[in-house]
Automatic annotation (TrEMBL):
Gene3D superfamilies: Vaccinia Virus protein VP39. This is SAM-dependent methyltransferase.
Length: 226
């Protein structure tokens, strides 16, 4: 079945959120970085302004700027309403309210949309998705995966997680995944087994605390090295 825009709920995070979620140092930001499942995040756009080297992959990049903008307009208020209903699952500190969240997300998505046509032409936004990516072995220094693996553990199998993480490890020296919770702000049902199997297969894994919490309890990332 073909991937359709109706399956997408665009929800973009900012450069500063990426920096905090993934504990990215200035040295890290100088690496060639892959952003996996980036959607309409502004990380790539901001990094391009700073002279950074980021390629973002997501199936949403098959659609035009106008199509993505239209989908954002369709779902934005619905997402905010769902957030209000589940407000207890979030920490309202850096982002003090649902209204402030909406403004933060809209700002990030607008930065993405402004950069998107140029980024497409430069090959910084590529239509692709896990568990198979179109890159050579070791092409990146760091691969980041935000709010996809583990978050959708109820929908994505243990096998999918393992194949996806091994693929990310194939193309990047280091992989960082955030958060380690699934929807509902509960620990991912796959986390312990993923770590156990990867360690058995010779990967080095560590759970690293980060200076970021919005989803309640979402204060850790998984770091994987070969």
């Amino acid at each position: 079945m073909a991937f359709t825009l109706e399956e997408v709920v665009p929800w973009g995070r900012s450069f500063e959120e990426y920096r905090n979620m993934f504990d990215l140092s200035d040295k890290d930001l100088a690496e060639r970085i892959l952003g996996c499942a980036d959607g309409p995040a502004s990380f790539n756009a901001e990094m391009a302004k700073r002279g950074g080297k980021v390629i973002s992959v997501d199936p949403i990049y098959r659609f035009s700027r106008e199509e993505i903008q239209g989908r954002i307009d369709q779902v934005f208020e619905t997402v905010l309403d769902q957030t209000r209903k589940n407000a207890h699952e979030f920490v309202w500190k850096r982002i003090p309210s649902v209204e402030a969240l909406g403004q933060t997300r809209l700002s990030a998505m607008q930065d993405f949309l402004e950069d998107y046509p140029k980024g497409l032409s430069e090959g910084r936004y590529l239509e692709s998705s896990l568990p198979s990516l179109p890159f050579h072995d070791g092409e990146f220094g760091i691969a980041l995966c935000s709010h996809f693996l583990f978050l959708y553990s109820a929908h994505l199998s243990l096998d999918f997680h393992l194949r996806s993480i091994r693929e990310l490890c194939r193309i990047a020296r280091e992989v960082r995944i955030f958060p380690l919770l699934e929807l509902g702000a509960v620990p991912s049902r796959h986390m312990d087994e993923v770590q156990r199997i990867l360690e058995k297969q010779g990967y080095q894994t560590s759970i690293v605390p980060v200076d970021y919490e919005f989803q309640r309890g979402g204060t850790q990332m998984l770091k994987i090295n070969q």
